[in-house]
């Protein structure tokens, strides 16, 4: 089974936001060495925790530092932009890293609606045009003349377009257009994943590039040398999830700080289910859970997202999973 990575450039308490961007680049190099298949970058706006706001720029920097791993957006929030411009950007990326570019697109704003309007003053209602925008992207990124327009530069390869989502909408759109589909399992600890993946497979209409359905799940996972160590470092994200639920967003806190103020009984109503359904533990424990998930959903690939306040903890997590799945044997 293939494992890939989704990185969100998470800002850490006690550090700076620009350091999070540089850490993303370092992580990409590490993940290529470890044998991961893809390295995807998210797009969020006006958030103090997830500071990767321009995946297409980060992708170019990753391309310059790597030679094998596929590089992608997860994703470009398409309603903010003109499809032609996005197609041109990704054709340039394809020229920089031939045969290695994924163009994952979503229709969510990646921030609040005030920010969305600042990104595009005409943004309200434009999500309704998302299917048409995706169709335009498929044509222009594929090197076809479309609406009397060409997207340059052309080359031997073209970006692989993915639809990203956390609902049935994206699953149905991907199926209708014959595109790969990635479900954001980590958004809601898997809620709605079964229905979306089943719907995608049932409705899938094969395309020339993708004759068979190609689904995957993006999962949050943290592995460490011991289960106790993993649970300790997971406190940072647990605190973030609780705070987000009450409208408080800030850089990721260290587990030491979180441990000083244990979760209240009310907060455990959020944390408890997260722990029950989570992929946190030793390398073998997390690998077993991931294999079971892939088997249950009949998947050939999983995308792993990992947050930790200490960058070395995150790298160790990816290293342990790479070892468990013997990723370097396929590179």
From TrEMBL:
Luciferase-like domain sequence ranges: 1-294
Name under which the protein is recorded: Luciferase
InterPro entries from the UniProt entry: Bact_Lucif_Oxidored, CmoO-like, Luciferase-like_dom, Luciferase-like_sf
SUPFAM superfamilies reported in the protein's UniProt record: Bacterial luciferase-like
Species of origin: Piscinibacter gummiphilus
An example Gene Ontology CC term for this record: cytosol
Superkingdom of this protein's organism: Bacteria
Family to which this protein belongs: To bacterial alkanal monooxygenase alpha and beta chains.
GO molecular function: oxidoreductase activity, acting on paired donors, with incorporation or reduction of molecular oxygen
Pfam family, one: Bac_luciferase
């Amino acid at each position: 089974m293939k494992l890939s990575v989704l990185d969100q450039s998470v800002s850490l308490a006690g550090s700076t936001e620009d350091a999070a961007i540089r850490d993303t680049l370092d992580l990409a190099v590490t993940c290529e060495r470890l044998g991961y298949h893809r390295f995807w970058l998210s797009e969020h706006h006006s958030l103090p925790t997830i500071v990767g706001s321009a995946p297409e720029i980060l992708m170019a920097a990753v391309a310059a530092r790597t030679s094998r791993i596929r590089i992608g957006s997860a994703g470009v929030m398409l309603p903010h932009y003109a499809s032609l411009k996005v197609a041109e950007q990704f054709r340039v990326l394809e020229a920089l890293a031939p045969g290695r570019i994924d163009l994952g697109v979503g229709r969510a704003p990646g921030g609040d609606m005030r920010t969305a309007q600042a990104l595009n003053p005409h943004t309200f209602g434009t999500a309704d045009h998302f299917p048409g925008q995706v169709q335009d992207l498929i044509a222009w990124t594929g090197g076809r003349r479309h609406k009397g327009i060409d997207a340059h530069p052309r080359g031997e390869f073209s970006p692989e377009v993915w639809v990203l989502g956390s609902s049935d909408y994206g699953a149905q759109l991907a199926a209708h257009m014959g595109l790969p589909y990635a479900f954001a399992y980590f958004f809601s600890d898997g809620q709605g994943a079964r229905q979306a993946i089943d719907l995608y497979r049932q409705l899938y209409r094969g395309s020339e590039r993708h004759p068979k359905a190609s689904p995957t799940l993006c999962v949050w996972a943290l592995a460490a040398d011991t289960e106790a160590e993993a649970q300790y470092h997971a406190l940072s994200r647990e605190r973030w999830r609780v705070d987000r639920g009450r409208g408080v967003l800030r850089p990721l806190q260290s587990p030491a700080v979180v441990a000083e103020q244990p979760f209240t009984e009310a907060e455990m109503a959020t944390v408890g289910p997260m722990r029950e359904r989570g992929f946190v533990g030793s390398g073998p424990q997390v690998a077993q859970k991931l294999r079971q998930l892939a088997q249950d959903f009949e998947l050939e690939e999983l995308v792993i997202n990992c947050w930790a306040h200490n960058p070395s903890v995150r790298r160790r997590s990816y290293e342990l999973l790479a070892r468990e799945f013997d990723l370097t044997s396929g590179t």
